[in-house]
Design a protein that fits this description.
The structure is a single chain. With 86 residues, this protein is an all-alpha fold. It contains two helices and no strands. The radius of gyration is 32 Å and the shape is rod-shaped.
Length: 86
């Protein structure tokens, strides 16, 4: 992308000229700014997905605990019913 800008500017101005250097600096700053904004958006998305993943892990952990508790209750009921029938 920057390569095309340099070619375009070089066609209008001498490469060593102050105008060329100034235009090149502005274009470089614009591209860097755009890149930083894109990185920030990606990092925001990563942070958002990490939060969602953590919430999903918590939900799954809770579901496992609930099922373990239910299993214990059923096991106790079955064992107590079995011992009463003996």
């Amino acid at each position: 992308m920057l390569y095309h800008v340099i070619q375009e500017l070089a066609g209008r101005h001498a490469i060593g000229s102050p105008e060329f250097q100034s235009m090149l600096s502005r274009e470089t700053a614009r591209i860097e700014s755009s890149h930083k904004e894109e990185l920030r958006r990606h990092q925001d998305r990563i942070d958002e997905l990490a939060e969602k993943y953590a919430a999903l892990e918590d939900e799954f952990r809770l579901a496992l605990q609930l099922e373990a508790d239910r299993f214990k209750q059923v096991r106790i009921f079955v064992l107590s019913s079995y011992s009463l029938n003996i």
